Amino acid sequence: MADSPAIIRLQDISRTFQVGDEQVHALVAVNEEIRAGEHVAIMGPSGSGKSTLLNILGCLDRPSSGSYHLNGQEVAYLDDAALTDVRRHQIGFVFQFFHLVHRLTAAENVELPMIFAGLPRSQRRQRVATALEAVELEPRARHLPDQLSGGERQRVALARATIMQPEILLADEPTGNLDSKSGSTVLDLLERMNREGLTLIVVTHNLKVAQRADRILLLVDGRIQRRVAPGEMGDILALLTEEGEG
Amino acid sequence: MSFADLFRFSARGLTGHGLRTALSLLGVTIGVAAVVILTALGEGARRYVIDQFASLGTNILIVVPGKTETTGTVGAGGVPNDLTLYDAQAIQRSVPAAYRLAPISMGTEQVAFGERRRQVAILGTTHQYKEARQLEMLRGEFLPEEEMFRGSSVVVLGPKLARELFTGAEPVGQIVRVGGWRMRVIGVLAKQGVKMGMDFDDLAMIPVSTGLHMFNRSSLFRILIQTRSHSDLELVKDSVTALLTERHNEEDISVITQDAVLSTFTAILGALTLVVGAIAAISLTVAGIGIMNVMLVSVSERTREVGLLKALGVRRAQIISVFLTEAALISTMGGLLGLAAGWGTVRLLVKLYPVFPASPPPWAVWAALAVSVGVGVTFGLLPARRASRLDPVMALAGR
């Protein structure tokens, strides 16, 4: 892993929001490299800039300053259309609240990115079948999201996030809305995909989720406070209770 | 993204909100149906009037006493000279292009047979009136060919009047009393209906001079002139005007051509159709605003979905086309339904009132359809653009 190339390189990334008269510094000079195939967890108290960082990593947002190389390409200042194309081909998203389209069946939800990417129908069918099989939801293919359990919904979302075969999967509290059993099923699936080569970045509050990562970035007040290995969890716990939540 | 895929995805967007879609569909349907029905009525009115004029006979001139251009100044010259039978005779003698000529006297009298009596319009004229106005006889004869000054005591009854007075008995040859006058029934008109505001079914026709005596009038109501051809109309009009001006020492009559009246009516009714069509177009626009409203609601309700689409790498243009296709689907379907509903209503109207030839003009049908589709796309554009410009982070959070 250590010798694989950096797929993400952040240099002095800052993000400032204007809220009324006040400037809020959500991210301050973040420097980080993430290698292809890594599994990284981002932790931090609320308001520490986790989501902002994830949005910038996912090309949903642009930094106010700094440089972001994704696969060697500077993407920090691309225009809207170019960022859209980056998202389409290189990045998959999994959200806390699944974000399934509820009038579409599980299979149709998984198919969605391919429709807009203009893939031919036969190819779409085949990929949907494979993807649903991978998340063990083939028998539920024709169910609407309302007919699925939370864990099943997140697995559909996972199949959708990876259907365009992105290199990076960004997960924002993927188990935040699930019971522990379906949560761990989802985490198992994420881990398996990571082992198969997918770069996985998970934002979480949950230590058990973070512990599965290769390393953890602890974000406090928009800065990376610590980089820790899963073995050093005790420190994290201490930091979180000390600085966060308050 | 193929069109079929776009179409399918947008259609799913609509069926996902059945009631809302149905309501805005209804708006467009009513709008288009209104255009079709209202313009059909306008067109029907125009055709009705044209038919009415045609049924009155062609190449007709009407001489009426009084100058229509001057509205009676009180005092000298304010009262026009009588339009007399001598005037009619003079026209007959010196204007050869006046092919048929029928002087008319008008009044209202009681017509009685035995104990049955009925107050009707009495039209005094000559035998040439029948050809000029294309009247048909049910039985008996029309007024006899005789000198216009000779007023014999004969009467021709309208079919309704005859039916009311005689209740099935043979009227021809019977003596009826018209006013105080005893007159012999010589014929009954075939059913004509109402022409130019006159009910030919419920009147009595008598010789013109008998009429003048009966109503104690010196002036004719008007003189009807028919020319052989359309091209003679202007010539006859000028000749008659000149002749009567000379006879009366002033121009105190008016000669009206049916063409002039008809073209006025046609112009009025054409304008009416346009106005009515414009009103209908307003209702279409309202329907369009309804679509816009529905689409705006749809966009704000689906903010998260738009956010998701953005996260999935769906391009702006694609998001616009999704919402635009939804709007276009509503308006096109509404347009087609409206055409069907409007057409059906018009057919029903024609079935119920066959005399009224209501039919939507083709331009109105195409315009209604085009406008409804255009309206959908135009009013769908704003919501679609709004959706496409949502910030993905905000949209995903539902803000």
Protein architecture, described:
The complex is a heterodimer of chains A (246) and B (399). With 246 residues, chain A is α/β, with parallel strands linked by helices. Helix content of chain A is 36%, strand content 27%. Chain B has two domains: 3-53 and 263-396, no CATH class; 81-251, no CATH class. Chain B is 55% helix and 18% strand. The relative contact order of chain B is 0.19.
- What is the level-2 CATH architecture name of chain A? 3-Layer(aba) Sandwich
Poorly predicted spans of chain B: none
Q: Tell me roughly what share of residues is in helical segments of chain A.
A: 25-40%
Strand order of the largest sheet of chain B: 2-3-10-5-7-6
Number of domains of chain B: 2
- Give the H and E element order of chain A: EEEHEEHEHHHEHEHEEH
- Output the structural class of chain B: alpha+beta
Rounded radius of gyration of chain B (Å)? 33 Å
- Main sheet characteristics of chain A: 6 strands, mixed
* Annotated CATH homologous superfamily of chain A: P-loop containing nucleotide triphosphate hydrolases
Counted beta strands of chain B: 12
**Number of helical segments with 4 or more residues of chain B:** 12
Q: What multimeric state do the chains show?
A: heterodimer
Domains of chain A, number: 1
| Overall pLDDT confidence of chain A | 89
- Across the major sheet of chain A, the strand order is 6-7-8-3-9-10
How would the global form of chain B be characterised?
Answer: elongated
